[in-house]
Amino acid sequence: MNEMILSAAKYLEHKIANKIKPEIAIILGTGLNSFAEIVDNPQIIPYEEIPGFCISTAPSHQGRLIFGTISDVPVLLMQGRLHFYEGYSMQEITFPVRVMAKIGIKKMIVTNAAGSLNEKIIPGSIVTIKDHINFMGTNPLIGKNLDNFGERFPSLHEPYDHKMIELFHEIATEKDIKIHTGVYVAVTGPSFETHAECSMMAKWGADLVGMSTIPEVIVGKHSGLRILGISVATNFGNIFHSKSHTQEEIRANAGKAQKNLQEIIFDLLKRV
Ligand code: HPA
Asked: Domain 2-271 belongs to what architecture?
């Protein structure tokens, strides 16, 4: 594993040839792809070129890394994430996070589309993740520990960096953009949750449900990264109504939040 991580890191370092050395990475979730358009001087590297990277098969996930700058800050965008439901292992979907840590990334913004389990969080809302519940039934750190990254039993007492959350809320207030904060629960998918599952998860204290993010956050924390998690609520979960939601609805609602999210992150990058 370590060798694969090293060879991917070497490949990227060689490719970007010291032109740019980002310390912050953004993982783009469903419907948040247009973020890539605001990157200046983008250098695009498709996953298939990078040793050890798997190819994203999820709808609207493109599968490439973009190195460049946003408001003069060097950034690395991961456009198209890998999901457990695609059939990849936990180690495969979190491999890019290990590589990011290896090439010097210190902070990671993880975005996703999620179902809302909280009536106050309506579709189209932006939500900072303050904590999570891993209901995927597994953990990406199972197996031999990578001691050079982190310890066997890493603490998750603060998986999401409170300073980054505070800054995100401060900027949203300055821009008069209403946002929420909440607890995210991850399931494997790909089927959406039943009524019974949604009401159970809401009773546990979850505000959002989705099929990603937590594996990357666990590996990111194990690798010593500071992490900000942002969900865009794209639909209500199955507790408030019985209408089923489509990929089109999810993408349309993610698109609604995209401009505001972009504006907040644009400022955050300069101040974080
Ligand atoms: N459930 C799980 N994942 C999701 C949902 C949902 O309702 N919406 C977007 N991603």
From this structure: 3-Layer(aba) Sandwich (3.40)
